[in-house]
């Protein structure tokens, strides 16, 4: 699950987020999911409410969540409440090192609702998060 502006990966601030598009990430994760023997639902939205709805949809039909809430990480109590309420194993991902940027990025209001997190490892963080989630669920 990906939050706002991540649909512009590959063109947006490439020096921070890299050259890969979200489509590239999705293709790679679909391949990885196949190798791991799991089904993947891929989702991106620029809207907070759509992310909240997608989290609740996951609660009804999925075993776990990998989420990069993007800017909502830093202030969305609605996303945090949805993750807490869904109660699924959840891995928070950030492509960049949020602790080595502006101070406001160091704070994640969603982290307490997540099982764990990965930041600063580029888009490889999504792969690692999926592997960790599958291992957790095994
Ligand atoms: C991000 C970090 C956030 O601070 C930022 O708002 C993003 C992307 C990351 O993946 O590094 O949009 O979540």
According to CATH, the homologous superfamily is: Dehydroquinase, class II
Mean pLDDT score: 98
- Structural class call reads mainly alpha
Q: Architecture, according to CATH?
A: 3-Layer(aba) Sandwich
> What hetero molecules are in the model?
1,3,4-trihydroxy-5-OXO-cyclohexanecarboxylic acid
Largest sheet: 3 strands, parallel
Instruction: List the secondary-structure elements in sequence, H or E.
Output: HHHEHEEH
Named CATH topology = Rossmann fold
Cα separation of the termini = 21 Å
> So how many helices?
5
Number of strands: 3
How much of the polypeptide forms β-strand, as a percent range? 5-15%
Spatial strand sequence of the major β-sheet? 1-2-3
CATH class: Alpha Beta
Low-confidence stretches: none
Supply the number of structural domains: 1
Helicity, in percent?
Answer: 40-55%
Shape: globular
Q: Give the C-alpha Rg.
A: 14 Å
